[in-house]
Write a structure and sequence with these properties.
Blueprint lengths: L5 E2 L8 H16 L3 H12 L5 E4 L5 H7 L5 E5 L2 H10 L4 E4 L11 E6 L10 H13 L1 E12 L15 E2 L3 E2 L10 E12 L4 E11 L5 E12 L3 H10 L3 E6 L12 E7 L3
Parallel strand pairs: 1-11, 2-3, 2-5, 3-4, 5-6
Antiparallel strand pairs: 6-13, 7-9, 8-9, 9-10, 10-11, 12-13
Bound molecules: S-adenosylmethionine (SAM).
Length: 270
């Protein structure tokens, strides 16, 4: 096995990351907080008339949970590969290929959500603001936005980055992927930071391993993100026209807390 080069595309078509995204997201919701009940409850209480729009919907797991409650939901994502998975998993839902910073669906919803740090994958501050403005434009007067971000732990945002790799528990291969009996090892490798622009990049390694623990396929890619400070996030929401801006540190409604999550809710004025 020769070492592969690192790709700048985090969700490539036919790649191990895209194929295993749901496994990783499932592990995340077992170890950390599960976002699905929070977004489902919000949709249930706010979105019976005009439905929900999920920006950065990925493979569709959150939209699908909302649809199971009988609420109309549509998803939009920039990655054709992630949307292919969404379409294959949930063919009855409406999926749009598009950029959350620049799209127009020509209709308005009761609730727009950007779950699981989707806004952080927009790595330019002006574009993050444009995404919020597009969300605003797609809300009915009185409609709500909800999103979650990682609150930056400043120890990990320094120019020297973080060289220490972190290996996730080994996964079974997703159905239909890889050689029979092989398993998937995922390692978060080094992280680089640019404190000037608040951009950071995580090097992820995806390896198919056989029963002798030999690597038979390896894919390396960068995940580019941008950290957002809580005062900055509040200002971006205000400048985008939102009111009644509330922040929590988790999906239970606890108060803001440094280096935890930022869970935001806000309204388009009536
Ligand atoms: C961490 S995933 C979250 C997926 C889904 N919301 C979930 O909770 O499983 C972030 C998603 O945002 C998408 N994304 C990144 N930048 C985007 C953009 N500018 N416009 C639309 N989607 C974007 C990625 O393709 C990816 O599917």
């Amino acid at each position: 096995m020769t070492n592969s080069s690192i790709s700048d595309e985090f969700y490539p078509a036919g790649g191990l990351n895209t194929a295993s995204y749901d496994l990783r997201a499932d592990l995340d919701r077992k170890i950390f907080e599960d976002p699905i009940p929070f977004y489902s409850r919000l949709a249930e209480s706010l979105a019976h008339e005009n439905g929900v729009l999920e920006l950065g919907c990925g493979t569709g797991r959150i939209s699908a949970a909302i649809a199971r409650l009988g609420i109309a939901v549509e998803g939009l994502d920039l990655s054709p590969a992630m949307l292919d998975q969404a379409r294959a998993n949930y063919p009855d839902l409406t999926w749009h290929l598009g950029n959350m910073c620049d799209f127009d669906l020509g209709r308005q919803f009761d609730l727009v959500i950007i779950p699981f740090r989707g806004l952080q994958e927009v790595t330019d501050a002006t574009d993050q603001r444009r995404a919020l403005e597009r969300a605003f434009a797609h809300l009915k007067p009185g409609g709500a936005i909800a999103l979650d971000l990682m609150d930056p732990d400043l120890r990990y945002c320094l120019p020297e980055g973080d060289p220490d790799p972190l290996e996730l528990p080994v996964f079974p291969m997703p159905d239909g992927v890889g050689k029979p009996g092989s398993r998937l090892r995922i390692t978060a490798m080094e992280r680089t930071n640019d404190p000037l622009t608040q951009k950071f990049s995580e090097h992820w390694r995806f390896e198919e391993i056989n029963d002798l623990d030999e690597v038979i396929k390896r894919e390396d890619c960068w995940h580019h993100l941008r950290w957002v400070h809580r005062s900055e996030m509040r200002l971006m929401l205000e400048l985008s026209g939102f009111v009644s801006i509330t922040e929590f540190s988790d999906f239970q409604g606890n108060p803001p807390k440094y280096a935890s999550n930022q869970v935001w809710m806000a309204k388009r004025p009536d």
